[in-house]
Structure formats: C-alpha cells, structure tokens
Amino acid sequence: MNAPWKVLGSGPLVGEFVVNGDKSVSHRSLLIGALCGGPVEVEGWGDSADTRATLEAVRALGVQVDDHGSGRLTVHGVGLTGLKPPVGAIDVQNAGTLMRLLSGILAMQPSGVFTLDGDASIRTRPMERVAAPLRAMGASIETTAGCPPVVVQGGQKLVGMEHVMEISSAQVKSALLLAALRADGPTTVVEETATRDHTERMLRAAGATVHTAGGRVVINPVERLQLDKIEVPGDISSAAFLIVAATIIPESRIFLRSIGIGAGRTGVLDVLERMGARVALFNRRTTDAGEPVADLEIAHAELSATSIRPEEIPSLVDELPILALAGCVAHGRTRVRGAGELRVKESDRLQSVRDALWSVGGHIEVKDDGWFIRGVPVRLRGGTVESHGDHRIAMLGAIAGLYSEQGVTIIDPDAINVSFPGFRPMIEAAIAVRRS
Ligand code: S3P
Fold this sequence. Notes:
By secondary structure, the chain is of the alpha/beta class. It has 2 domains: 5-21 and 233-435, Alpha-beta prism (UDP-n-acetylglucosamine1-carboxyvinyl-transferase, Chain); 23-209, Enolpyruvate transferase domain (UDP-n-acetylglucosamine1-carboxyvinyl-transferase, Chain). The chain is 30% helix and 25% strand. It has helices at 23-35, 49-60, 96-107, 128-136, 170-179, 198-205, 236-248, 267-275, 320-328, 349-359, 391-402, 423-435, and strands at 5-7, 14-17, 39-43, 64-69, 72-76, 90-91, 113-117, 140-144, 147-153, 162-164, 187-190, 210-213, 216-219, 229-231, 253-260, 278-286, 292-299, 307-308, 332-336, 363-367, 370-375, 383-386, 408-411. Helix 3 links the parallel strand 6 and strand 7 (113-117). The radius of gyration is 21 Å and the shape is globular. The mean pLDDT is 97. Bound molecules: shikimate-3-phosphate (S3P). Shikimate-3-phosphate binds at residues 24, 97, 169-171, 174, 196, 317-318, 341.
C-alpha cells in the first residue's frame, strides 16, 4: 500500500490548471482507432492507468500503437475484423469502460476466443448488462456469475435489432453500437435518458451512419471506418474537482482550456450554476472527431443547496462525489435522487462518499438511491479519508483537505492514477506557489 497523503487547508487557487485528456474519449480513440482501416493520429490522449490498460489491450489484440509521448499516439488500425486473440486473458485492470466496450467489439470478430479479466474491484462489477443484450443479437458471451472474467467467442452472425435500455449506461449503449457495426441490418438503442454520446460522434466522424432522435440511436452496419485524427478534449470529470475547489475557496479564480462539453457530460455545470457557482464558458469549438469543447473560467462564489433529480444523473454520474462535497459546504439542504448506479462504480460510491465526507465533518446521509446533505457553509473540520482504491474518492478527499481547518489525510492516494496522474503534483504545486 502506498503512503498516505495529507492535504492541508489552502488559500485561493489562481491561474491556469491543466487537466488530463478525457478518459471516455481516450479509451474510444484506441478502441475505435484499432477498428479503422489505416493509421489514426491521436492528440491530447489522457495517460492514466485506465487508458494504459486499453493501450495494452489493443496491442495484445495485434494492433500497433506508437506512443510519441505528451498525449500523442498513432494507432495503426487493422480494420473492423482484424483483431487477433492473444495467448492469455486480456487484463482490463480497473477499467469498466474497456471491459464493456471491448466485449461489443470482440463479439463481432469473425473468429477467436477472447477472455477479459481484471483486478479485484472489476471482478465485482456487473457484466450481464452488456452480455445479455449482446447475446440477444446472437453473440457468444459468458460471464462468471454475472461478473468478470468474461469470455467472448467470435464467429457468430449478429442480427440488427432494437434494444430498450433498462438502465442508463453509455458503456452498454456503446458496446451494442460497436457490435452493430457488423450486424446484418440496422440496430436501434432506445434510451429513456440520454447518456454521453462519444461513441456515436466518433463513429460518425469515422464514416458510420448513426442517427440520434427522440431517445433513439440508430446505427447501420459498415464496411470500413476511417479517421485521420482524433483530438481528445480535456476531461470535464477531472475538471469538476478543480471547478468545485475554485468555487468554494474564497478569492480563487482559475482557467481550464479545451474542456469537453459534449452532450451528456455537462450536468455538473448546470447543477453548480443552479447552486450559484460562477463558471464562464468561452472559445467554444468542435474537434475534428466531433467533440464540442470550450475554455472555462471559474471564480469563487457562495453556494446554496439544490435538488439533483434522477433524470440528471447520467449527465453527471462521475461528478456526484465532488457535487456531494459542494452540497456539504452550501447553504441549505441538498437532496440527490436516482443515483443507485453509484453502488456499482469503482467502489460503492453512495457509501464511500458518505463515509469520506462524514469523516471530515460533512453532514451527509445515504438514502436508498442517493444522499440527503445538510450544508454548513464553513470550512470542513478535516480528518482521514479511505479511498477504497477509488480514484474519485481519493480526489474528493484532497479537495476536502484544501477546504478544511485541520487538513485531510488520504489513505491509498495512488488510486488517483486510475484517471488523473497529474492531479497530485498539480495540487501540491498550487499549494507551494501560495506558500512561497
Ligand atoms: C463511461 C460511462 C459511465 C461512466 C464511466 C465512463 C463511458 O458509466 O460512469 O466512468 O466512458 O462510457 P456507465 O455507462 O456504466 O454509466
């Protein structure tokens, strides 16, 4: 186990902060890049333990990836059906997105048996949500009592069909859209609430026909994908930690460049705006691979409580831990509903967020599918936060530390490397600049 990290209360955060490339888009740049009919140049790729797992997975499947450093990759796509089964299991480590999206891709390969496995945490995460609809399309896919290891056998004829999603999950939707690339006809995925659409945008940019309207995503089978360049935006899920920190620490004013603000990802900004945050978006543009981005300026503001509704959850699912912290230091009572999916993330986040915030002085109770938070608009007391190996809980502890009286000690802080290895050096540098 790595050494604990103590984060002391901080003065204002000021200046430009650089966040890593978006994790969801980084995974997809490798997975969809691998399916293209030639080389794909990737820029701004977010280097982290999770995305490295994807890089190693596609290499294990016979795809050459040149890593030029500083987030630049060349993915030498082998075409839709060119993946080769590796000798042993593919190790997805902690990456649920990799496990689920790759299941869809492997299901449409013309031959081969592929085993997907990972760490102790991923072995507890539900996989039937992907396996069952893929099986309905004709795929051969077995889980282990509903969890990994997962075994996928290629060589099956897949049928294009309509899937009505039982849960809101971009990972499940994406797995089905990827398998559908080689189905015998169009595939429709029906979502009650829209989830992040990075797969749709990237596939469209690569030449696939994907139509979205009225909660229905329709994709046609395709012969070939082709993408010259993928620019990965900054990760709004990582940015959210800095946005909340700058909002709650008096006199802060920070800038974040080229942050992804695609549909299905900006719920955190809507909720913070409702709470009184001051976040300005400018320089809006769209990348070659179809991702909307903007620069952000965030200034300190007093927050008031809000209600987060079930239909908002998919657009901020990964930001709920840091929004819970915002609720703890806002004026009034914040209620979060419809967030039951947090129970099956990298940790049981309904419980681990409650435990983390409770142990640093926050007033937060777990309800069936969310939290009830009694905000107290002063610095948190401080204490110790156990990350449970969950990157977002470790970063939550660090931001709580910045806004605490006595500091916060994070147990197992290296979990942060799963998504944002630059986070700790950045926070330490920001604190050091203020002290010097
Ligand atoms: C992701 C989708 C979300 C999110 C995860 C990344 C993606 O998961 O929590 O961190 O890249 O598609 P679900 O689709 O399971 O909600």
